[in-house]
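Q: Hi! First time asking for a complex rather than a single chain. Here are the components, and I think there are two in total. Is that enough to go on?
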Amino acid sequence: MESKIRIGIAGYGNLGKGVEFAIAQQPDMELVGIFTRRDPSSVQPVGDNVSVYQLADVEKHVNDVDVMILCGGSRADLPEQGPALAKLFTTIDSFDTHAKIPEYFDAIDAAAKPSGTTAILSVGWDPGLFSLNRLYGETVLADGATYTFWGKGLSQGHSDAVRRINGVKNAVQYTIPSEEAISKVRAGKQPELSTREKHVRECYVVLEAGADAATVEDTIVTMPDYFSDYDTTVSFISEEEMQQNHSTMPHGGFVIRSGKTGKGTNQVMEYSLTLDSNPEFTSSVLTAYARAAYRLNQLGQHGAKTVFDIPPGLLSPKDPAQLRKELL
Amino acid sequence: MESKIRIGIAGYGNLGKGVEFAIAQQPDMELVGIFTRRDPSSVQPVGDNVSVYQLADVEKHVNDVDVMILCGGSRADLPEQGPALAKLFTTIDSFDTHAKIPEYFDAIDAAAKPSGTTAILSVGWDPGLFSLNRLYGETVLADGATYTFWGKGLSQGHSDAVRRINGVKNAVQYTIPSEEAISKVRAGKQPELSTREKHVRECYVVLEAGADAATVEDTIVTMPDYFSDYDTTVSFISEEEMQQNHSTMPHGGFVIRSGKTGKGTNQVMEYSLTLDSNPEFTSSVLTAYARAAYRLNQLGQHGAKTVFDIPPGLLSPKDPAQLRKELL
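A: Yes, that's all I need. Here is the structure of the assembled complex.
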C-alpha cells in the first residue's frame, strides 16, 4: 500500500473547512494540518485531532506536506500567498478574478518552475469545471456559440470583494441569470448577449457604524472586473437580517454550447451544477485536483498549470486500467 | 503560419461523412483523402475534389497523413483495422463495445508503441464525453452515485450489430430511458438501478427474403454485451417503412452525479446532450481529438490513449495562453 498524499490547508474559512471535509472522503489523502494567519488556538477544525499552525511558520513544514491547498480570497490573499507558497509547496488554488488570470499565472509559474513545484491555479467550478465545458464545447462544435449562466447563487469572490470595502461590516452578493436571456438560448437561436444582458447582481450589505452608504454603493457598482459591467443593485440591511436570511451558500448555473454540424444539424451540449453549498463543492474540486498536482510533480512536470493542462485520469484514485474498465 | 494537420478517413459511412464535414469546420486541418474497401469510384464524398483511395493501398500514404480517423464499426471492423492502422498511422477511433475496451486497448497499444504512433481509442460521446463526466463526477463528489441515461435515440453500434445478423437486411435500434428510473434519480434519492431497470431497447428489423423471424429475434435478444442485459423488443417492418420512419439519427442522454459534501449537503452535477444527428456529433468529437493525437505524437507520447489521458487544452486550436485568457 502506497503512503497517503499529505495535504495542508492554507487559510481556514468556508473553503478551508470544505477542504477538510473533502479530504476525509478521499481514500488516499491525509490532512497534515491547517495553516492560519490567526492565533491557532482560536481556530476550531471540524475534525478531531487536527493540528493548526501559524501560516508564518509554514516553511518549517516543507517536508511534511505534499500538496498545499490555498483557501484564501482572490482579491487580497492569493496574489501574495499564491507565488509565496508555490516557492515552497506543490499547490492548488481557486483564483477566480477571470481578467487577472494571465498575470497571476505568470507570477505563479515564475515561483514554481525554479522551485521544482507544481501549481494548479484557478481550480473550482468557474473557473474550473465550467471552463472545461466551454473548452470541450467550442472544440467539438466548432461552428456554434457558448453561453455561461450563473445562479441564482451566492458568489464567494464577489461577496469577498464587497466585504473588503471600507465601511462594510458584512456583505453577500447573489448572481441571478436573466430569464429572458435563458429563453433565447434554449430556443437554439444563438443570440448575441452581453455580460450585462445575461445576469444581474444583487448585493446585501451591513454597514460599519458611521459609514456612508452612498460612497459604499458607488464603490461597489463601479468596481472593475467584479461589478462595473453588470446591472448591480445594492441593499443595506441589518446584521440580524444578514444572519437570518443570508447564511447559506447555494449556487449553480450552466454552460451551454449550441452548434451546427453537417448541413446545419442542431446539436446542444449542456453542463449544469445544482449546489446546496458553493464553498463545499469548490473545496471538493480543489481536493480532487490536489491528487493530480501531486502526480504531475512526481512526474517532474513543474510550474503553473490550469485545468486545461490536466489529463482527467490523474484526478482519480483508480489506476488507468481500472478507469478504462469501469468508467470508459 | 504552421502547416495544417493532414487527416485521412478510413471507412466512409455516416461517421466518415460526419468527419468530412467536421474537418471543414476546423481552421487547422485538411482532408488528404478517404480510404475505402469499396470500389473508390462508387464513393461520393460530400465535398468537391476529395480523393478516394483503396484501403488496401493505405500504406502508400503513410507519409501524407498525420492522423487517420477510423470510421468503421466496433463489432467487425475496428478489432482488425484498429491495430493494423495504428502500426502505420497516428489514429483516432470510436470503439464502443464497452466490455471489450481493455483487450482492444492492449491490442492497439501493442501495435502503436513500437511503431512510434499515437492512438486515441473509444472517442465519441459514450464512450467519450460521457466517460469524462463519469470520471469528473466520481472524483469530485467522492461520496455519491453516478447515473448514465441514453436516449431516446438511435444507437449506431447496436443497430450495426443487428444488421450483421444472418437474415437481417436492415435494422435500427432505439435506446429509451425508463421514466420511472429518471424520476428517482432526479429526486436525489441515489437509488440502486440495474442496467435493465434504466433503459429499454427497441429494434426495428427488415428481414432478407426467406429469413426466419424467430431465429433473428432470438439472436438479437440473447446477444452478449449488446442486448442480453436489457429488456429488448423486436419489431419486423418493411423496407419502405424503414426508409419513411427511421432515416434520421437523433440521440442524446445524460450523466448525473448526485453526491454529498460536508455534513450531508446535496450537490448535483449533470451533463446532457441533445443531438439531432448522433453520427455527425460523434464525428465532431473524433475530429477534435485528432488534433490532440497529432500533438501528443509530436511530443513523443506514443501508444494507446483514451480520453482520460488527454489534457483538454490539446483539443483546441488556440494556444495555452489564449485558452487561459478567453476560456478559463
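A: The longest strand of chain B covers residues 251-261. Let me know if you'd like any chain examined more closely.
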